[in-house]
Amino acid sequence: MTYRCAFQVVEASDHCCRHFGYVRPSAYMPHLSLLYADITDEEKKRVEERAYALDETISNLDFPIARLALYKSDTQDKSLKSWAKVDEFDLHQIS
C-alpha cells in the first residue's frame, strides 16, 4: 500500500490568473480536505487502515459533486471556530 495524503489536490487555475493579470502573493494549493485534524503519523495510518477495512476500493472512489463551499480558515486555529463560509456554489454538469 502506498501512502496517500488526506486531501485531494485540486488543480489551480493559473490560466485564469494570467488572463486577468492576477499574481498570487504566496504559494497557494487549492484542495479538498478529506480529513482536517492535528494528528500524528501513527494516527493517520490508523485512519487509513480503518478506511480500507470499510472499503478496500476507497482509493478508487468516484462521485459527483453538486455543491461546493468556500471557507476562509486560520491554519493556527485548531478549534476550527474561526472558519467562515465565504460563499457556496451550485455546480451544474456541462454536457
Briefly characterize the structure.
This protein is of the alpha+beta class and 95 residues long. It contains 2 helices and 4 strands. It has one domain (7-90).
- Tally of helical runs: 2
Oligomer: single chain
Number of DSSP strand runs? 4
Structural class: alpha+beta
Order of helices and strands: EHEHEE
- The unreliable regions are 1-10
Task: Supply the number of structural domains.
Answer: 1
Q: What is the residue-averaged pLDDT?
A: 78
Walk me through the structure.
The protein has 95 residues and is α+β, with helices and mostly antiparallel strands. It has one domain (7-90). 22% of the residues lie in helices and 20% in strands. It is built from 2 helices and 4 strands; from the N terminus they run βαβαββ. The protein has helices at residues 14-20, 41-54, and strands at residues 7-9, 31-33, 67-72, 84-90. A two-stranded antiparallel ribbon has the order 1-2. It is extended. It starts with 6 loop residues before the first strand and ends in a 5-residue tail after the last strand.
